[in-house]
Design a protein that fits this description.
171 residues
């Protein structure tokens, strides 16, 4: 790899570190090509990506970024899993690590907040952005639905009484 290629990799990694909601660092030693492909596919499905890079280049790219503190995790055969959604990458890595013991989560960073292995698991346990939006919409919509029911209830009661009276007179 020549100098220009290394500079391009450092620039790409720097972009990943600054734009991602979460970056998870893990050891992937022993993973087969099929297992790594499965991991990449799961991350892509979740809206994230996987990047394997030289640790030295990743440490250079980390300088001056919010996640600079995770540079100490970059030793050995490391893989970076990242996503814009602060929860998606952590959920996917945690689920894959439970299925495949060869992937060992080291930690990561969520913006400027460094995460250890327990921190990644805690982030993975949080609801995703879509789940939070759905619960907020449900909370906002519930009072409106109850209000409509309350407003419509007297009219429904009157209609029921009128139909009962009508049936009596017809009989």
């Amino acid at each position: 790899m020549d100098r220009a290629q290394k500079e391009a990799v450092v620039a790409e990694l720097g972009q990943i570190f600054t734009d991602s909601g979460v970056v998870v660092v893990a050891h992937y030693e022993g993973l087969s090509v099929a297992e790594m492909t499965d991991f990449r596919l799961r991350m892509k499905t979740a809206g994230g990506s996987v990047r394997v890079a030289k640790n030295k280049l990743a440490k250079i790219a980390l300088k001056g970024t919010p996640g600079e503190s995770m540079g100490s995790l970059l030793t050995g055969m490391t893989v970076l899993a990242y996503s814009e959604d602060p929860v998606a990458a952590a959920k996917t890595v945690d689920a894959f690590a439970r299925d495949n013991k060869k992937l060992v989560v080291l930690g990561g960073a969520m913006g400027a907040t460094p995460l250890d292995e327990a921190g990644v698991k805690a982030v993975a346990a949080m609801p995703s952005r879509e789940e939070l939006i759905a619960s907020i919409v449900a909370c906002i919509g519930a009072p409106a639905g109850e209000l409509v029911s309350a407003i419509g209830a007297p009219a429904a009661n009157i209609a029921g009484i009128l139909s009962t009276l009508e049936e009596r007179e017809a009989a």
